[in-house]
Design goal:
Helix content: 25-40%
Shape: globular
Strand content: 15-25%
Order of helices and strands: EHEEEHEHEHHEHEHEHEHEHEHEHEHHH
CATH superfamily of the largest domain: Glycogen Phosphorylase B
Number of domains: 2
Length: about 425
């Protein structure tokens, strides 16, 4: 394979809705939310009071990434981007928000975001025991007078749920929960940990009492209903991408690295299975380069695997990069790979699709609801390294199929996964629960 063999990408210009001849089916939509408002749409009801948003992770301040041990605090990821972008989108819609989050190794702080929102970072800089963030957060709550509702964001940090439920009950306001990673359905439970033993019990109890439950995929919505949540209170609102961040041209961040390039972008942790990406790359044609963006507890293992790989001269480990730099890496890659062990959705897949980049991912969790094999991308079974290598090679060599998949994928996410649209959906949920 030579550089000219790189796959044809979707064009940089947005693909019009309906342009592809093959569509991936209806985009996920909440049961009681609009699909987006036109400029001529009538003014919608305002959200009353201040929304208290509780989330253990949030977009980190720049100084948090300067620490030598920054990766230990997991400062960058899909949930971090989701909570920050949703805050911006709701702020643009006039929603007053008080966001209470962890400091992620940075300093305690209180900062303004947008026109009417405040982000308060609290807690202690510990690498483990993330659940304990809720203890310090409970001491940092704002006055309950004036609260309009409480919105909790649950990942593997279920301690946020009883805190949010208690605050909503005490303030007598609705409770909204977004499930970013279900401890009952999604988290790998092969290892017994407090989050896998107690998490499902706490999660099910709080979700059944919540006024609205937001999930990222249709399978997650079905699972919530099976767990006893009223189907009328379940809404599908996926993670998205920022058109402002991912639109336009980007300079190549790695001009010295030849094409074709396979890009892995994610935390170097068991959940993302980065070692599978390294192993699959070693089975690909000998002119393909692998770019690994991210850091985490498997950093040493990944470095050892690269050192032992026959393709080690063509592997580039970059470490952490700020989210603002991600669009440039996606824009100049030739195929994206995400071989996850488990995943609620994988928001980086949305960003890759929005960038016109072909994607190859594992058939786990909610990924198949976004990456539909042979329609919007390529799927392989978890742990199938030869299959992963073959799918990546096909993405680079079967130009005609790859162009069809990327154009279909880009049209799909442009239509239903942009943050301005998703923020409107959440706004509509807020209005709905306050009317009850």
């Amino acid at each position: 394979m030579n550089p000219s063999s790189a796959p044809a990408r979707a064009t940089d210009a947005p693909v019009p809705v309906g342009a592809p001849t093959t569509t991936p089916g209806p985009a996920p939509t909440p049961q009681k939310a609009s699909a987006g408002r036109s400029a001529a749409a009538p003014t919608t009801p305002a959200v009353a009071g201040t929304v208290l948003r509780l989330c253990s992770v949030f977009e980190p301040p720049p100084e948090a990434l300067l620490r030598p041990d920054a990766a230990a605090y997991d400062p960058i990821g899909g949930m971090q981007n989701h909570t920050a972008e949703l805050t911006r989108g709701l702020d643009r819609l006039g929603v007053r928000q008080h966001v209470l989050t962890s400091r992620l190794g940075g300093a305690r702080s209180r900062t303004a975001l947008g026109a009417a929102s405040t982000v308060v970072r609290t807690g202690v800089p510990v690498r483990g025991a993330r659940q304990l963030w809720a203890v310090d957060a409970a001491r940092s709550l704002p006055p309950l007078d004036g609260l309009g509702l409480v919105h909790a964001h649950q990942g593997e940090d279920v301690a946020v749920l009883p805190l949010a439920a208690a605050v909503a009950r005490r303030a007598d306001v609705p409770l909204v929960v977004t499930v970013h990673c279900s401890t009952a359905r999604t988290v790998d439970r092969s290892r017994r940990r407090p989050v896998t033993v107690l998490g499902p019990l706490v999660e099910r109890q709080v979700l059944r009492r919540a006024d609205a439950v937001l999930v990222l995929t249709e399978p997650a919505a079905q699972a919530a209903v099976e767990d006893g949540v009223d189907p009328d209170r379940v809404h599908v609102v996926p993670s998205g991408f920022s058109p402002a961040l991912f639109g336009g041209a980007h300079a190549d961040p790695l001009p010295e690295v030849p094409h074709p390039r396979v890009l892995f972008l994610g935390r170097l942790a068991d959940q993302k299975r980065p070692l599978d990406a390294v192993a699959a790359h070693a089975r690909m044609p000998d002119d393909v380069h692998l770019v690994v963006v991210g850091d985490g507890p498997l950093r040493a293992a990944v470095e050892a695997a690269v050192a032992a790989s026959p393709a080690r001269e063509r592997v580039h480990l970059l470490g952490l990069v700020a989210h603002e730099q991600v669009p440039a890496h996606l824009a100049h890659a030739d195929v994206f790979v995400l071989p996850s062990q488990y995943e609620e959705l994988g928001s980086v897949l949305v960003e890759a699709m929005a960038s016109g980049l072909p994607v190859v991912a594992n058939r786990v969790g909610g990924i198949p609801s976004l990456v539909r094999d042979g329609i919007t991308g390529r799927l392989v079974e978890r742990g199938d390294v030869p299959g992963l290598a073959a799918a990546l090679t096909d993405a680079l060599t079967d130009r005609r199929t790859t162009r069809r998949l990327t154009e279909t994928a880009r049209a799909h996410v442009d239509r239903a996964f942009s943050w301005p649209v998703l923020a409107e959906r959440v706004h509509d949920v807020y209005v709905d629960v306050q009317r009850r």
